[in-house]
Structure formats: C-alpha cells, structure tokens
Amino acid sequence: MRMRLQHLSRAALLALGLAASSLALAQNAICYNCPTEWADWGSQLKAIKAKTGITVPPDNKNSGQSLAQLVAEKASPVADVTYLGVTFAIQAQKEGVVSAYKPAAWNDIPDGLKDPQGQWFTIHSGTLGFMVNVDALKGKPVPQSWADLLKPDYKGLIGYLDPASAFVGYVGAVAINQARGGTLDNFGPAIDYFKALQKNEPIVPKQTSYARVLSGEIAILLDYDFNAYRAKYKDQANVQFVIPTEGTLVVPYVMSLVAKAPHADNGRKVLDFVLSDEGQALWANAYLRPVRAGAMSKEVQARFLPASEYARAKTIDYAKMAAVQKGFSERYLKEAQ
Q1: What's the CA gap between 150 and 158, in Å, rounded?
Q2: Which of 2, 14, 20, 119 has the fewest CB atoms lying closer than 10 Å?
Q3: DSSP letter at 323?
C-alpha cells in the first residue's frame, strides 16, 4: 500500500511538473534576432514580461542568420516573431516564412514603412548621416553636405563602411545616389561620387567603427543617427550628427509574425507591445527613432535633431533597393573601390 501511494505521489508530481512546464511554455514567445545589447532589447524584453507575462528569451542572431533559420524551419517553425532589417524582411516575405498581422497601432505607422498586408512593419528606424567627432576635426568646420566631403580640407578624416559588403555601407551609397540625382536604376552618381572621394583617402572598414570615431581615428563616419546620439549622450563624446543638406535615407527596422508560429497569440501580444506607447518610448530612450513619433517624450525628443532636419530623410522602394544591391556591389568593386 505504501509503495503504491509513493508511486501515485510521484506520478502526481510528474503530472504537475509537466503541467507547469506546459504552462510556462505557453507563456513564452520565441523571437529571432532580439539581442539584449542591440537597440536596448534587454529593457524591451523585461518590459514585455512585466506588462504581458510573456517571457521572450534573448536571441543573438543577426538578420541574415534569422532569415536562414526561418527558411530552414519553414515546415515546422520554432520562432513566433522576428526582428529584421527591412530588406531581409522583404526576402522573408518572398520566402513565405512570415505571416500577415496588423498590430494595435497599425494606423499610426506611415505608409512606406509597412507592408500593406501586415507581413512586416517598422518599429523604429535609423537615419543615415554624418557621425562627426568634432575634436578630431581640429578646428575644421563640421561638414553639412555630401558635397562638403569632397573638399580637400577633409582628406584622411572620412570613413564609411564598405558599400559592397556592409549593409550600412550600401545604405550610404543609395543615400548619396538619390541625393545627387540617381535612381535605383541608375547608380552612376554614386559611383562617380565614390571615385571623387578617393582623392580624400577615405578609411573603408568592413565592420562597425563606432570605437574608431570615439578615439578620433575616424573624424567623420557615414553612420546612423542612433550611434551618434549614443556617443554624445551615453559616452559623453563631443560628437555631432548631421543630416546632409541634399537629403538622405531612412532605414526601417521591422518585425513580423512568423508563419505557422507555435505560439502565435503570444507573438501577436509581443508585436502589440513593441508598438505601444511604452514600447516605443523604450526605443526612443535607446536613441532609435520610434515609428510612432508621438510616443517620444519632450525630454527624449530634445536629444534628436528637429523634425525639420529629419524632413530631408526619405523612404525608398526597399524591395527594389534589395533587388539591385548585388548589381551595385559588383559595379562598385569594378569601378570605384
């Protein structure tokens, strides 16, 4: 009898354990590419847990790795949501690994920053411009335009990531091309610009160069606004961000619901939260421009350049931008490197 009771007790405990683990799993949502160190996802994941009760484990994949994993798992998905650079999201849509969902704040997302069916939508964006270490200029004026960078005054002071291999480098090329009269069918103006810029002996690394700007090794880097603001306000460096007078490009960071997500309802709640006032304010505190500008506090807004400056930053046909990237890279390597 005693043995039987012990057996029943163990069975009951096992059943309880399985029920508890099942419940815990039910309160999870898996996100691909939600790393705690990037864009302050760490704070965002904590806030999601506090507000919704859903645990989202951190995930250190990048956009390319996430897309590859989603495609590999297409028949039996593991992730519920994913965070991607916009061109990767467009590819994910083509591969059929994301699903339509229009979150609670859908109508607040401007056209051009979302797929009309809801297969991807922007949660925050970066704007490409000049991240300038003012001290490293040694008295030279802070450049204000793409044309300024061609002046001999800035010889040896300019850096940009390799446009043929780094996404931010390609973004810079597209921004220059648009600003100087090119189109996604004609990259001639960008190629000519990079050829002319060679006279100023630019530094062209393949990977992120944030630390090299802070040290003064690179005085002017073509980079996103959020890196410049982080340098200025978090690292207390004498850094300015400049949106070139001729115009530039907005780069959306987007999220999607995964097709056939195992915890789709939880995934939808996560997507609703990152677009809520609270979620959007967290992006702004990490110096990323939230897609819902109204969610920014006046204090945080004061750290960004005025809206009149950002009016020069434009969206583009991101699907076409992705489609022509390879062709541009090949041409750049032949003609402008």
Answers
A1: 10
A2: 2
A3: H
